[in-house]
Design brief:
alpha+beta; Butyryl-CoA Dehydrogenase, subunit A, domain 3; seven-stranded mixed β-sheet; 11 strands; globular; binds 3-thiaglutaryl-CoA; binds flavin-adenine dinucleotide
């Protein structure tokens, strides 16, 4: 397939800083050289490419938009562009970086003590320590406020009991940010691999995100020292503010997956001949390509403006919900369309489209399902909460 050179119908590059363009281009090349050549095999083998973690750290792709403690301290737009390029490779690689940076490093950076920041953040930025984020439980997905995982204060330590499910990076993580109720109020705790009573078995049998590790986290009388509570936050707004950061990254990442599917559809339909000419010459096929270009362009504008608002400190969670919901929705639609345009070849792993399509089904569900984001927006429009 021809080299990917980006999709930029409205010269959006002119709205990026020199540094942002450079970051995007470096990550794009790295993904072409290091992710795309191995990712289909990783998916076939249900294997997360662990060997990419340290290089990602060396390139400054972990905790991109955090500053100090060895973190790169780049703009939120640069963080978004990194997510876009990683997910053009595969959602699993972007997922890894999202969880590491936005869901594990961010809460330590924002809510942690100085000792916690110094202990974990530099190693996490380098990819020497891997993190995960435990919010979802078997019986509490969209409604995390109902969580049953409990911490009890026993003087010089906390005792944790409960279970988390669907946790990205869980089995390979050195530390987990675990949200649990202490005296009925949600708090964040740092649980380390090897803490007594903590196990993280891998979940098997996924048809989606096959190159990502997904796990349960089980706490059976798990004992953690007193200094592992995150002192700077209490209540559901703790995990939800981490999610706002990660959902922002996903709104960019989904564009990368959409671009990969668009690129493959264009290349394929230009070279595939039926009825005596390239199928790209038929009006119905061009209609689909025009739809893809249209929706990718709109998604880029949404993500970019979210990034600029985030950099200015004025982005509200509802704006992130709209961008996450829309951009994942159009990416999934583009992936399905692209699969169709490849005909039978579209089901083969010689082409990236079915892999992206299957991945995007998870992306539509995690970090707030499509309909949860609709409800968040419904509440913003009407002032009426319709969750329960
Ligand atoms: P609600 O009463 O609305 O809010 C409770 C408190 O939180 C504040 N808040 C937020 N703060 C920051 N960012 C946000 N997005 C926030 N949304 C709400 C809110 O102001 C309030 O603060 P305060 O001070 O008044 O206490 O809470 P609710 O119980 O009604 O829940 C609302 C709902 C349903 C939207 C929320 O529970 C939700 O978003 N549910 C979806 C759950 C979810 O997204 N789970 C994701 C798990 S992690 C994951 O999927 C990682 S995958 C990663 C990967 O592999 O890439
Ligand atoms: P449910 O909440 O049971 O929802 C099922 C359906 O009901 C959905 O269509 C939903 O939109 C709908 N629904 C629910 N409530 C309402 C309502 N009030 N009104 C209308 N419709 C409603 N979680 C973590 O904590 N950490 C992770 O790292 C993580 N990684 C993940 C990785 C993968 C691959 C996947 C698939 C999930 C991951 N998750 C993670 C969990 C993810 O966040 C949850 O799956 C998601 O929040 C939805 O919860 P649920 O699956 O329990 O679905």
């Amino acid at each position: 397939m021809a080299k990917f050179n980006g999709v930029d119908f409205y010269n959006l590059d002119s709205l990026l800083s020199e540094e942002e363009r450079q970051v995007r281009d470096v990550v794009r090349e790295w993904v072409d050289d290091n992710v795309i050549p191995i990712i289909e095999k990783c998916c076939r083998d249900d294997r997360f490419p662990h060997e990419l973690v340290k290089p990602m750290g060396e390139m400054g792709l972990l905790g991109v938009n955090l500053s100090g403690y060895g973190c790169p301290g780049l703009s939120n737009v640069a963080y978004g562009l990194v997510c876009q390029e990683l997910e053009r490779g595969d959602s699993a690689i972007r997922s890894f970086a999202s969880v590491q940076g936005s869901l594990c490093m961010f809460p330590i950076w924002k809510f942690g003590s100085e000792d916690q920041k110094n202990k974990y953040l530099p190693g996490m930025a380098k990819g020497e320590l891997i993190g995960c984020f435990g919010l979802t439980e078997p019986d509490h997905g969209s409604n995390p406020s109902g969580m049953v995982t409990r911490a009890v204060d026993e003087g010089d330590h906390y005792r944790l009991n409960g279970a988390k499910m669907w946790i990205t990076n869980g089995t390979i993580a050195d530390l987990a940010i675990v949200w649990a109720k202490l005296d009925g109020v949600i708090h964040g705790f740092i649980v380390e691999k090897g803490d007594p009573g903590f196990t993280a078995p891998e979940m098997k049998g996924k048809h989606s995100l096959k190159a990502s590790v997904t796990s349960e986290l089980v706490f059976q009388d798990c004992i953690i020292p007193k200094d592992r509570i995150l002192p700077g936050v209490r209540g559901l707004k703790g995990p939800l503010s981490c999610l706002t950061n990660a959902r922002f990254g996903i709104s960019w990442g989904a564009i990368g997956a959409a671009m990969a599917c668009f690129h493959s559809a264009r290349e394929y339909t230009l070279s595939r001949t039926q009825f005596g000419r390239p199928i790209a010459g038929f009006q119905l096929v061009q209609n689909k390509l025009a739809y893809m270009l249209r929706e990718i362009t709109k998604a880029q504008l949404l993500a970019l403006q979210c990034g600029r608002l985030k950099d200015a400190g004025t982005l509200i969670p509802e704006q992130v919900s709209l961008a996450k919901m829309n951009n994942v929705d159009i990416a999934l639609e583009i992936a399905r369309m692209s699969r169709d345009m490849h005909g039978a070849n579209g089901i083969l792993d010689e082409y990236p489209v079915m892999r992206h399509m299957a991945n995007l089904e998870s992306v539509r569900t995690y970090e707030g399902t499509h309909d949860i984001h609709n409800l968040i927006l419904g509440k913003w429009v009407t002032g009426i909460q319709a969750f329960e």
